[in-house]
Amino acid sequence: MKQITFLTYFLLVLFAVSFSSCKKWLELKPQDGIVKEEFWKTKEQVKASVIGIYSSMMEYSSGSYGNPTNYVPSMAELFFVWGEGRADHVASATASSADDIALINANIQPTNVNANWRPFYRTINFCNTVIEKAPEVLANDNTFTQQQLDNYLSEALTIRALMYFYLARTFGDVPLKLDATLSDENITPIPKTPQAEIFAQIVKDLTAAEAKAVTSYGDVASDKGRVTVYTINAILADVYLWMEKYTESVAACDKIINSGKFGLIRGATQNGPAIEYNDAWFNTLYYNGNSNEGIFELQFSQQRLNPFFLIFSPATSARRWIAAADLMERVFTVDYTNDQNYDIRGDGGSVRAATSTVWKYVGASSTGAIRPLDQSYAHWFFYRYADVLLMKAEALNELGRGQEALDIIYSVRARANALAATDLTPAPTDKNLIQDFILEERAREFCFEGKRWYDVLRNAKRNKYERLGILLSMVSISVPSSMQQSAQAKFKDQNSHYLPIYLYEMQTNKQLVQNPFYK
């Protein structure tokens, strides 16, 4: 973490990007320091620039919250909002803005700040700059090896792919920028690229990155917080699910599983109906992070607190998001015959039921108090081993290997003491019911981890929206009853499943065309 701390200062000098100019259509221009020829001379500068890519994903929001003309959300905040805001696990809180509520109510407009993609393109440009400039250092520093360069390029290619994966799932067609913007003179507005081409580029980048990637950096924090070959395969498995390439998805999952480097953190010991809440499970997985289950996590620390603690904590006046009122009963289920029998991922795991608090990011333990502000360093989880297992189960089910899929699901459920009431008991040949079972298990396992909307959309759109009803059923839960008829009608239009392009991006890039539903 000392490395990240040093880069916090370093980036203020080299990577700071002004958010004040309305002349720039995407926040693509790095400060001049990063592109001056005298900078790209040493391997240490390349390493610092690569670490800076990660640091850019950890930045705080800027501007005045609620002011659409200057507010730019933090990327970590958008990971949550894009993945959960339109789904059925969250509700608005006292500090929710009109934009947050509009997102929940399926009434988002192009002026909604939650549609601001600027932080993602900022990080993409940092990646592009490293990809373009780092190879020049080979000629300038004879201690810089090709292998070191390849490793750094792998990191930049992977993060670029991850950024585009978020953008393509959230907006559909988006601008595809693969070269670095190094000065004001080469800021060129570009139109959107079809989503299918974005996905193809993501696979191309990840395939190239895999061939150059490390398996370990030699320390746990780096192995969990920087790109490894396992990070790449986790993203590939996810991308292939979206592309409906199930054999490839299974193969990517198996590379992680067969490595033997990861496992599930078991949190429950069962003796009949009695269940012991295991604080060690919560502390290992969520409070401390970097567990044996972690594959890729943003490394917040005491020196670099996360930007999303305040939007969840009931101890502040800034809380914007709480758990849906019926989350415990609907998702995790309550055993009314024995209150010691419960899914550990529910009350005290993902949520504090009594206060509807999003607990995994603010809790000090499964049963204890809220973290103090100076301990608000919970990690953001991109991928955990449980995700790899359930992605493999999803792909296996689509390949007609239902029993193998069920075996995986039950292994994930066992570690959490999932209640029998949430067991759908599908037959191995019942593909749709197994699909529902996996989707429900993912809801329990990754509650509030920015995956719910994407999971529902992916399952709904499979086979040309064969199961649109999955998404419509979710809307009947997430949207207030007075607005459900309108929301249902909207979501029957597939174009509504993507966010609008932010109005202020439209104004600064005349090559952009608004997404169809919002024209």
Automatic annotation (TrEMBL):
PROSITE patterns: PROKAR_LIPOPROTEIN
Taxonomy, superkingdom: Bacteria
GO cellular component, one term: cell outer membrane
Main location: membrane
Subcellular localization, as worded in the UniProt entry: Cell outer membrane
Keywords: Cell outer membrane, Membrane, Signal
A Pfam family hit: SusD_RagB
Residue ranges constituting the SusD-like N-terminal domain according to the UniProt record: 24-241
Domain RagB/SusD span(s) in chain numbering: 366-518
Family: Belongs to the SusD family.
Annotated protein name in UniProt: Putative outer membrane starch-binding protein
